[in-house]
Amino acid sequence: MTPPDETMRAVEALLFAAEAPMTIAEIRGHIGDADIRAALDALAEDYAPRGIHLVRRENRWHFETAGDLAHYLRRDREEPRKLSRAATETLAIIAYHEPVTRAEIESIRGVQISKGTLDVLMEAGWVRPAGRRELPGRPLQYATTPGFLDHFGLASRRDLPGIDDLRAAGLLDPVDLVMEQASMGSDDDEVESCNNNG
Prior knowledge:
By secondary structure, the chain is of the alpha+beta class. The chain folds into three domains: 6-71, Arc Repressor Mutant, subunit A (Orthogonal Bundle); 85-160, Arc Repressor Mutant, subunit A (Orthogonal Bundle); 170-198. Helix content is 52%, strand content 13%. It has helices spanning 6-17, 24-31, 36-47, 70-73, 85-97, 102-109, 115-123, 146-151, 163-168, 174-197; strands spanning 52-57, 60-65, 100-101, 127-132, 140-144. Strands 3-5-4 form a three-stranded antiparallel β-sheet. Strands 1-2 form a two-stranded antiparallel sheet. Helix 1 crosses helix 3 (36-47) and helix 5 crosses helix 7. The N and C termini lie far apart (67 Å). This is Condensin subunit ScpB. It comes from Stakelama pacifica.
C-alpha cells in the first residue's frame, strides 16, 4: 500500500464528501495544480482489495461499494426491473446509435414505439433527452445516462459488446443471424456483379 501524500488525502476527502461523481478538472478546481490523475490511480489501487472501490465512469470518479458485498447492504429484496422486448430493443438502439431521434429508433426497429416505452427508460434513469436535431420540426434526441453505464457495469459506451460478443453469448435471435447472413450475401452478390460488369 502506498503511503498517502497530501494530494491523495485531499482527493480522497473531496470524493468522500462529494454529492456526485467528479471529473479531474472539477477535483483540480478544489485542490489546485497537482497530479490529480496519479493520486486517483494510487487511490484506486489502494482501495481495490477493500469493501469500497474508487471507480471511473465516463471520466467521472466516485467511491462505491464493492460489487461482491452489495448484498450485505440491501435491507429489502430488490425486484429486478423487467423490461418489455420493445423497451429492451429501444434501449439497445439508443446505446449503440446515440444521440438518436424517435423516428430513427422506429426506422431501425421497423415498428412504432409508444411514448410509454421511452418514459419507462427515462424513469429507470437509463435514458435522457439529448437536445434537438437540426431538422424540420427539430425532433428530440435521446442518449444513455451515466446511470445506464453504472447499472450495467460499463466504464464507457466503448465497453458495449460487439456483434461477435453477442453471437458468442447466444443473444442474437436466429432471425437476426439469417438477416445478417442475407445482407452479407447480397453485398457479395453486388461485388460479384460489379466485377462481372467491370
